[in-house]
């Protein structure tokens, strides 16, 4: 299976366009959704399930997931995929700022509570809406069309390319076994061979 993902430059053009399309609270919800996906590598159901009460300072607590039945009619809340999917993710400053600004937008809505879904408010964003927004941004910026799940690969790939170890990547993704992470991303570690040789060559004898 070929891995599809965006580089940070591609994501930058995707998200810049996404921001320019924000005219309603719902649009901002999509914008926030894709930022969370990029900066945390969370699964779609986990992002949709997030409530404001899941944020504690710079930590995002992943505690649940949602599953949408066909046509987005009913939403079923479930525990995350497995035990290791319960995780605490430290957020970078950019994401904290995006979330703070979005919370202020939602607080202007009537009856705001900490139980509001971060991306959707009272209800979750619909899978179809997320998908359409994704396609719209990719088309507008002439980017390859990647699936929502591929934003998870984007997150992992970005960290791998910066030499973050596989265990931390597995933890962030909520994988139950590091082998699973390794099997998916091992081929992205080719630079290690060059680095290994450099380490050896740098030994002065």
The structural class is mainly alpha
**Strand content bin:** 5-15%
Reading side by side through the largest sheet, how are the strands ordered?
1-2-5
Topology, number of strands: 5
SSE topology string: HHHEEEEEHHHHHH
Which word captures the global form?
globular
Q: Note the main sheet.
A: 3 strands, antiparallel
Count of helices?
Answer: 9
Low-confidence stretches: none
Mean pLDDT: 92
Radius of gyration: 18 Å
- How many angstroms separate the termini? 45 Å
Secondary structure blueprint with pairings:
Layout: H1 8-20, H2 25-40, H3 44-49, E1 55-56, E2 59-62, E3 65-68, E4 75-78, E5 87-90, H4 93-107, H5 127-140, H6 150-161, H7 166-173, H8 178-185, H9 191-201
Antiparallel strand pairs: 1-2, 2-5, 3-4
Q: Care to give the gist of this entry?
A:
This protein is mainly α. It has helices spanning 8-20, 25-40, 44-49, 93-107, 127-140, 150-161, 166-173, 178-185, 191-201, and strands spanning 55-56, 59-62, 65-68, 75-78, 87-90. The strands form two sheets. The chain has a three-stranded antiparallel beta sheet with strand order 1-2-5, with no helix packed on it. Strands 3-4 form a two-stranded antiparallel sheet.
Descriptive account of the structure:
The protein is mainly alpha-helical. Helix content is 50%, strand content 9%. The chain has nine helices and five strands; from the N terminus they run H-H-H-E-E-E-E-E-H-H-H-H-H-H. Helix 1 (8-20) packs antiparallel against helix 2, helix 2 (25-40) runs antiparallel to helix 4 (93-107) and helix 7 packs across helix 8. The longest helix has 16 residues, at 25-40. It is globular. It starts with 7 loop residues before the first helix and ends with a helix. The mean pLDDT is 92.
